[in-house]
Amino acid sequence: MKMIWIMTLKELRCLFGSPLAYVIIGLFSAITGVIFVNLLLTYADQLQVVTTQIAENQGISFMQEVVYKLFANINFLMILFMPMITMKSIAEEKRTHTLDLYWLSPLKEWQVVLGKFFSSTILFVCMLLIILVYPIILMGAGINDIGHLGSCFLGVFLNGVSYIALGLLCSSLTDQTIVAGILTVIGIMMGWMLAWAGNVTSNYIFSEIFLYLSFTPHFERLVHGMIGSNDLLFYFSFIGLMLFSTVRNLERRTW
User: Fold this and answer.
1) Within 13 Å of residue 10, how many CA atoms lie on the same side as its CB?
2) What whole-number distance in Å separates Cα of residue 215 and Cα of residue 158?
3) Labelling 24: which of 50, 82, 96, 177 has CA 20 to 30 A away?
4) What is the pLDDT of residues 78-108, one digit of tens each?
5) pTM (2 decimals)?
6) In the predicted model, is pLDDT for residue 182 greater than 90?
7) DSSP character at residue 238
8) pLDDT one-digit tens code per residue, 147-159
9) Contact, 197 vs 210, CB < 8 A?
């Protein structure tokens, strides 16, 4: 555990010692802020046309029009930001051969991978901490369903951590950071497209398999406040599989 902590601190110093982390956090905060304000203004414009009661009868609710759409947009933004966090983590060190220095130390492959995973996750948490101001604004607007908002953040967090784990695997497959980033984007999009495949196929078994393997249904259930054991099992299994595959890929140098 000590070696993992040392590796995590080392990675955090590298991440926050460069402008990249601050650019990522700043851009993420700015874009989500613009989206949040735009959704609020759009919802206010809708309420000016109809009364609150009529809006609710027509399905125009604050949660549906603002909260759900906000977190759906945040999830979409992560396809751009998560690869930026992970694409250099292993690929850059393979290119510069600094990764070989780890193997001359007591560090094991799994400790290196976990250290990089935890440091990337901490950076992602810092991104999410910035948008915690939105629930405060929502409470000021009379939206007090904190439990529901908590499940929304849980869905975004689990999706983001899953993308990080996938990004680390992609970064370990190449020594080119751009290639690693592109592979991560493709992997995330394939995870989304499985839901589409599950909805269009006429075979029930394949439909259920595709829908379970896709990020989208699990994320949507969490955002709508339906936290199920199947969804949590999917995320934990996916993250574990990606990290295990990354470790095995790094161990190939000794084969």
Assistant:
1) 15
2) 10
3) 96
4) 998 999 999 888 888 888 888 777 777 778 8
5) 0.89
6) yes
7) H
8) 677 888 899 999 9
9) yes
Q: How many CA atoms lie within 13 A of 102 on its CB side?
A: 25
* Predicted pLDDT of residue 255: 45
Cβ density class 158-177: b for 16+ within 10 Å, e for less? bbbbbbbbbbbbbbbbbbbb
- Residue 146 dihedral angles phi and psi, to the nearest 5°: -65, -35
pLDDT band with cut points at 50, 70 and 90 for residue 133:
confident
**7 to 18, 116, 145, 200: CA distances (angstroms):** 17, 7, 39, 45
Residue 1's SS3 state is: coil
How is residue 167 written in tokens? 């990004």
Q: Where are the domains of the chain?
A: 2-254
Least confident of 76-80, 129-133, 137-141, 167-171: 137-141
231: three-class secondary structure by DSSP: helix
Compute the distance between CA of residue 220 and CA of residue 179 in angstroms, rounded to an integer: 30
What are the φ and ψ backbone dihedral angles of 202, each rounded to 5 degrees?
A: -90, -10
How far, in Å, CA of 150 to CA of 222, rounded? Answer: 9
pLDDT, average across residues 220-242 = 90
Give yes or no for a contact between 249 and 172, defined as CB atoms under 8 angstroms apart: yes
